[in-house]
Amino acid sequence: MGIVYTEMSVSLDGYIAGPGESGFDRLFRWYENGDVVWETASPGLTFRLTEVSAAELRERLANTRAFLVGRRLFDITNGWEGRHPFDVPVVVLTHEVPKDWPHLGTAPFTFVTEGGVEAAVATAKRIADGGDVGVNGGTIATQCLDAGLLDEVGMALVPVMLGGGVPYFGELENGPLDLEGPIRSVQGKDVTHLRYRVRRP
Amino acid sequence: MGIVYTEMSVSLDGYIAGPGESGFDRLFRWYENGDVVWETASPGLTFRLTEVSAAELRERLANTRAFLVGRRLFDITNGWEGRHPFDVPVVVLTHEVPKDWPHLGTAPFTFVTEGGVEAAVATAKRIADGGDVGVNGGTIATQCLDAGLLDEVGMALVPVMLGGGVPYFGELENGPLDLEGPIRSVQGKDVTHLRYRVRRP
């Protein structure tokens, strides 16, 4: 049975984006500082990872069969133009289906507008069909954590201080929460790959 | 020549205290989960550390000859009743000297009320006399970082989500900042000890 995890690149001060959507050059430096060429499914988007970080990413994605994302991430990327860089189906939790999105109906994107994060996770799990579900975006990751729907929290901890912006995790209604781990800890170049298991009550 | 560092126990969501000064039982669990008995200078305060974490703490304190703390931490601890648990002189950056503090004039505490964080760091360095200065408290650590006065950032990363509270680092005026490292990374029990070097422009 697959797990539901979140995994983001995060600064030492806890941000997944700097002020005004800045800082991505720094947060994603580890996607560009090695020799392993990784062609994504997005035209023109090629990573150059170190062997260590490539192995981490490979391992993380090996069983990932769906991503669940929030509307903010969908909007920033314009829904990755209908195809996620990792070529995995995407579930979007949103109040309204973006009616003017040109890939509506043709792309492997499912919009969940009712039932909140529980329904969105259920939909993503159904699509993943026994595989893992990756949750992306701080708000939706926090909602999943708060609702007891998250099995693992991963972070690619990057040695930068962004000094403001979008935090990985927001306020929890059901905190504090104990986690186990790191159950995996790998030092890459300009990044520490960490994973924690959420303890179920 | 000594360095100026900050080092705090911090949750995965970036807090050094939970909502309403909660969460210390979780953040400081690693001070209590081992067999190495560590008598502090504070009556009744004894740590029981694992060997790994005791070694980290020993290493960190070996050359620490002064602490610089903010007023919030001073107030929470009531100035450690005049003697820091690690028996090191303390410099307090504050707008006003706490006139009703019973240890005023007898304890090795120096209050800096003018010249801001620059003056406070200079005072702490003079007292440390070539040793290291440890900066404690998120607000003052952020101020030091912003002013280019910090050489190292350490964190004892604890596998807990506090879901709110007091963040380690606040907003930076002079961010973003690149750091180097981790220059030290040690996995303890219920804690990951990490250190980063601040890059000087």
TrEMBL record, chains A, B:
<protein>
    <submittedName>
        <fullName>Deaminase</fullName>
    </submittedName>
</protein>
<dbReference type="GO" id="GO:0008703">
    <property type="term" value="F:5-amino-6-(5-phosphoribosylamino)uracil reductase activity"/>
</dbReference>
<feature type="domain" description="Bacterial bifunctional deaminase-reductase C-terminal">
    <location>
        <begin position="5"/>
        <end position="173"/>
    </location>
</feature>
<dbReference type="InterPro" id="IPR024072">
    <property type="entry name" value="DHFR-like_dom_sf"/>
</dbReference>
<dbReference type="InterPro" id="IPR002734">
    <property type="entry name" value="RibDG_C"/>
</dbReference>
<dbReference type="GO" id="GO:0009231">
    <property type="term" value="P:riboflavin biosynthetic process"/>
</dbReference>
<dbReference type="Pfam" id="PF01872">
    <property type="entry name" value="RibD_C"/>
</dbReference>
